[in-house]
Design a protein that fits this description.
Blueprint lengths: L2 E5 L4 H10 L4 E5 L3 H12 L3 E4 L13 H11 L4 E5 L13 H9 L3 E8 L2 E3 L7 E3 L5 E9 L8 H25 L8
Helix pairs in contact: 3-4
Length: about 190
């Protein structure tokens, strides 16, 4: 009855199609800017429920209550599956932010680590080197978990330890996907 999926921003282009195709009706967060509007429209066409906000530093980009709205929504609705790019929207790459874990903690839902990767892709000249899969490709899905948020994650220290543990496992999952697809990981 619900979960919070965590993934890296570099694979964001496959999420919209892939998870809907797997039968999920995911929920996520998109930035408030013009690109965020385009992303929101794409995600909504793929069946996503999209909240608008983000981790940017500009006040106009971050409504103070977006995390609270997401928590309230998950508490009030069954079978909500949030998918969050934990190093987005501005990086640094492969460094996990806490928001997804906080949602899981506050709603009593498990965390799932998710990875969608492909044999052939183009890389964008962005902070995360966003990957765009090419047609007629081999695509692999990787999942780990579920991870229940430990009780000690109510403290700042416990939360930081749990986030770091998940970050390490998500980095390992990405490294495994690169190796399995015959790719060199991007420079950090």
């Amino acid at each position: 009855d619900g979960a919070v999926g965590l993934l890296w921003h570099e694979e964001v282009f496959t999420v919209a199609y892939g998870y809907h195709y797997l039968g999920f009706r995911p929920h996520t967060l998109a930035s408030l800017g013009r690109i965020g509007e385009l992303i929101t429209r794409l995600l909504q066409r793929c069946g996503f429920v999209v909240f608008r906000g983000g981790s940017g530093t500009k006040g106009s980009r971050r409504p103070a209550d977006v995390l609270s709205l997401m928590i309230e929504h998950m508490r009030a609705n069954s079978e909500v599956i949030y998918g969050t790019t934990v190093d987005g929207s501005q990086g640094p790459p492969f460094r996990m932010k806490r928001g997804g874990v906080v949602i899981a903690r506050e709603c009593g839902k498990p965390v799932i680590l998710s990875r969608t990767w492909y044999r052939r892709c183009l890389r964008m000249p962005t902070w995360d080197r966003t990957a765009i899969p090419l047609p007629w490709n081999e695509i692999a899905y990787y999942l780990a978990g579920p991870y229940d948020v430990p009780d000690d994650a109510r403290s700042e220290e416990g939360l930081a330890r749990f986030v770091l543990r998940l970050e390490d496992e998500l980095i390992d999952m990405a490294a495994h996907s690169y190796a399995e697809m015959g790719q060199t990981p991007p420079p950090k």
